[in-house]
């Protein structure tokens, strides 16, 4: 039985990257490539779902219910805070209507009356619309034999992306579900199969892949290049596969603090923007330097997420499951050889 520290560390780094991205937007010190943390999350999600389902058989209904229990409570709480804040005037730029609020709670992409984009009330929740879609599809393919699941997932998502590219749908919702980013879930699922089969690259190649992916993300940021799932997706796959290869060699150190941030990464992702917004406003009113505001926003945004994890996410998961809150930490057994 084992905890995958590489996955925990990547979740932590991805969450912090997103925090820096949003803090940079508010301070003018842009860290645009931080948005690629979402690509890492999607690859990791595909990996974890296949690794867990292959090591511990679960029915489609139980799988989907467990994922909803894991994702929905904290997200619904953060969404409710946004709605209440808008009603009492804390978020004057946030416009509400019933359709948009219902879509937000039910993970359905609905055009925001505030921006015109397919963003829920809690903007970063757009990624959860993809996650729930992936979970729903994955639950369906659990009806298939284990050997057929990855091919079925790859064919279905591949056809969706191909249809989107060929047909160029006018409907934003169809465009949403045919976007290339969904292939990152497939890539993560394929990595899980390679990992379970012992077919990861050598530790040396793993280190090269990690270094090359970081260099790629750095180049995109420094050269101010345009990026999307076609560029960041492969880099995220390289990063995850390289980290897993290094850990497989037994040379990855165990860092409790980073592991803990990995545990709390979901809450960090959900709650950090509240603290970032407050810090940015206070910093500007005090005429603080932009780097100081950025640093404070990242630190307090991360701490807000940790507080959300300890005060809400973890206790709720205890109540729902009677066990340690983070399903990502459930041990995974490698198949016997």
Give a verbal description of the structure.
With 337 residues, the chain is an all-alpha fold. 70% of the residues lie in helices and 0% in strands. It is globular, with a radius of gyration of 20 Å. The two termini are 15 Å apart. The C terminus is likely disordered.
Characteristics:
337 residues; disordered C terminus
- Find the count of extended strands (DSSP E, 2+ residues): 0
**Ranges with pLDDT <50 over ≥5 residues?**
324-337
Helix and strand element order: HHHHHHHHHHHHH
As a percent range, the share of strand residues is: under 5%
User: What Rg, in angstroms, do the CA atoms define?
Assistant: 20 Å
Q: Mean pLDDT across all residues, rounded?
A: 93
Question: What kind of oligomer do you see?
Answer: single chain
Q: Which structural class fits the helix and strand makeup? A: mainly alpha
- Helical amount among residues, as a percent range? over 70%
> Shape, please?
globular
The biggest beta sheet reads:
none
Helical region count? 13
Q: Give the N-to-C terminal Cα separation.
A: 15 Å
